[in-house]
Predict the 3D structure of the following.
Amino acid sequence: MENNIGTEELAHLEMICTIVHQLTRDLTPEQVKKSGFGAYYVDHTAGVWPQAASGVPFSAATFQSVGDPITDLSEDLAAEQKARTTYDNLLRLIDDPDVREPLKFLREREIVHFQRFGEALRTVQDHLDSKNFYAINPAFDHSGNCNK
């Protein structure tokens, strides 16, 4: 499941980058300046450079993983909700139907991913010893030494 969602998330990134490219590829220098896109243009021209709206570039530091299935699935759930919120915010700001429709599709997929991660979390929890729930990382410490 994680592999399938990860592959789909890369496709989401490709879709967003394509939308940005299509919207910016024919900008004139005057449009670049007027839009506030100047600093970005100086560094990247109209090339796609994934970054947050705040200007922080995408990096591997964005990913969170500690190897504990409960922790990692909870992080996955939060990431899907954050993505959905971002799409909600974009849809409030954008009125171009050619941009809105793919964003609405991507938003729907984030909801499905949230549901799948929720199912996986329930499965992990169902297979835990209730006495050790959250007390040890069953994927790592089978001896329970962290409880001593």
Notes: Helices lie at 2-24, 29-35, 38-44, 69-93, 97-126.
